[in-house]
Structure formats: C-alpha cells, structure tokens
C-alpha cells in the first residue's frame, strides 16, 4: 500500500467523520479486532463509525480512491470470523453501530424500517410497544445487529414457522463498492424490473455491498403461547414427534428444538440455579413451542392432547408443559445456554450444518459414532433446530485437552471429516452462521464448481477492486492469489 495514499485516506476520512467517527486508538479498537469465539484476531488501519448512509457512501468513495479495504462489522457476534480483519493492518474496520435508529414502525402495514446498527433485542422491545413482534430470535439477540443478521442471513429458533432473515426482509438500503447508494427500502408485492438485487445482498457477508438499513416485516403480538418439554429415547423418535406435531398443531407450531442428555447435563452444571424439566433420565429431549396470534385459551389443552397422543403412540417417555411464563423462559434458557456450557467444558469444533429435514435424524445416528470412532476420545454432540434441518454438530475434545494446538491439528481434520459427511448427505456446511473466513476454503473444496464460478463473477462485477470484506465468503479461484 502506498504511504502517500494511506496518508491521503487518513486525512480525508478524519475530515469526513471527525473524532467521534474515526479513530486509530489501539485501546478503542482492540475489543472489535477479535471475533466472538476468540478464534480470529487481526489489525486495522483505523476504525470508522459513520453516523448515516451519506457518510458511509462518502467513506467508501474515499476508500476506493485510496485503495483501502473495508471490513464491515455490526455487533461482532458472528460465528465464522466474517467481521474480523486480517493481520496486515491495511484494512479499516467499518462499524455500523452508530447507525442504530429505528426510523419507523408502522402498525397498519406491520413493518419497520431499521438502520443496520439496531440491536435485535431493541427491535423486539420497540415492536412489542406497538403490539407487534419481529419473528426472528437467537441466543445473541442482545448484541447481534440487524445489518449483521441480514449479511449472514441469520436463522434462529423460529425458522420452522417464519423462515430465515431472508424471509423477513422487505427492502434494503446499501452502499455499493463505488459509493453508490442502492435504495430499495420501499416494499412492493409485485415488481418485475429485473433481478431482485436485495436478495443478492442478503447473505453476502459485506462482500458485495454494505447494508445500512432495511425494511422488515412484523407480525401481530403473541396472543397465547405454550412451551412443552419432552423426554425421548432416540433422535429418530424426535423426528417422528416433529411430524406428529406438524400434523396436529399445524401453523401454531413455532419452535422444535432437540438436545441430547449430554447437553442438558452440561447446562445444569453450568447454570447453578437450573433444574431439569423432567424427573427421569432420557437420552434425548425436545423443546416445543406453540404460538397463536389470537388469545387462545384452548392452546394449552391442545398441547396436552398432542403430547398425550404422542405418549400413547410410544413417541415420548415423559413430558411436561410450562405452567407459567417464567417456567417457559427457564426452559428456553436451558436451550440457549448449550454453547457457553460446552465452552466451559473445554475446546470443541463447532459445526453449523444442515441436511434435508427428512434425513437429519438418520444423519445424526450415522455421523455421531463415525466421528467418535475416527477420532478417539472425542464426543460428538448434535442439538438444535430439527424442524428446519439445521443441527449444530459439535465435536468435543478429549478430556483435559488444551485448546489451540488441538484445534489447529486434529480439529481441522475433524471439521473436514464432518463437512465431507454433510456433503455426501446432500447438505450444507453452513446453515445459518455464514461462511466468513472460517469456512471459505472448505466451501472452495466442497462447493459446486458452477456455483463457485458464479459467485466469483458476481463478486468481481460488484466489487472490481476487491475492497469489500476481502478474504471472506467467496473462495479464491484455484490459480488466484488473495487481494
């Protein structure tokens, strides 16, 4: 990088953003230079924090003039290292956190316009005040931002009924690599003016454009809810139970999560005040949520009836229904605490994978013993969103293993083995956490060559200088070198 260009960039960016929006202070930047999992750390030339879309646009133009790469970042809660700069220190970190305004919430149209830095939980709370709700939630809702959720096409526990982030986005505002502002915030139910460009930006992890705002769909507030917990003998029984609930509960079935006994035990050890929902011991557990948008006094009875029929059919060993909102929240806390509880045990290789919904139970039954046999001393744990075919497949290191070296050596071999299995089963190596830098090379190794070639062509067309989030998502061509 030319020293003259760097100096020019620093001068122009400082003049544009001022002290409140531009810093090179190492202490201020440090918390944002390591990813949430602690696996990736980098350096940055500076951290820019624009206050509005016009400042983003002007900053991107300056970066283009001075050949400065840009790493966009929201809440820094990503799981694949997609918002962490590399170690060269040549790129700037572009924080969208100052752009945190909910511009409008329209009750009649059931939609909101949010800037990229709005935290998910903030949107939940603002929608609730208007007797509405945003139908996507996840464990990191207190830090994840709308821009980051769009950029990674996030999922969560409500995908079964409402779909991923892609299904929630009605319109997008984004700054493209030349600084141009793509304004598609106005939602149209019918629009045949060519490509749906907003869908191209969703899930692109900041490699094609920088999402600055979005129009999101909202739903009426919840009228009634019922949260159920069931103990099962096998993951195959969990799959049969899911089918039973889909037939009997219909569109009030909003969540269906599974976890093995190992995960529940880990959470109970991790949370000092937590209690198991069931008295007995079970190999598998299912957490089920029924939601009605109307006040429905019969929802609890409906859940009891469906569970009773499942028990008679031999699908479950025991079950209970949350007797209060507090107990329902306690059930969900058990599910949401699996990841930190596992981290407390020791190092693990964590895989966010999907296979066809109808194959997930069989995949788990096949993959768990294969992994444990191939890598002695490890424990393979599968949990998550059985209803949409997305399971978090974690492989825990042997007891007393130190991280770092294990993850770099055996851990990489484990991930390659798991990804090979997933590919053989017609699945995806990334279901909801994105590719980032963690899975980029694996996508290049296992991805369909035609799809990969199209991705590279789109990247080159929309970001010809290669300045938007370099080294993320898009695998290099076999004969190419990094930017």
3D architecture notes:
The chain is α+β, with helices and mostly antiparallel strands and 483 residues long. It folds into 4 domains: 3-95, 2-Layer Sandwich (Uridine Diphospho-n-acetylenolpyruvylglucosamine Reductase, domain 2), CATH 3.30.43.10; 102-220, Uridine Diphospho-n-acetylenolpyruvylglucosamine Reductase, domain 3; 224-338, Alpha-Beta Plaits, CATH 3.30.70.2190; 346-424, Alpha-Beta Plaits, CATH 3.30.70. Helix content is 37%, strand content 20%. It contains 17 helices and 18 strands. The chain has helices at 3-21, 26-29, 53-66, 120-129, 146-151, 159-162, 165-168, 197-201, 235-249, 261-270, 299-312, 325-336, 338-345, 360-374, 405-424, 440-446, 449-462, and strands at 22-23, 46-48, 70-73, 92-95, 102-106, 111-115, 132-133, 169-176, 181-184, 209-217, 219-220, 224-232, 253-260, 284-292, 318-321, 348-354, 379-385, 390-396. The strands form 5 sheets. Strands 5-6-10-8-9 form a 5-stranded antiparallel beta sheet, sandwiched between helices. Strands 1-2-4-3 form a 4-stranded mixed beta sheet. Strands 13-14-12-15 form a 4-stranded antiparallel beta sheet, sandwiched between helices. Helix 1 runs antiparallel to helix 3 and helix 9 crosses helix 11. The mean pLDDT is 95.
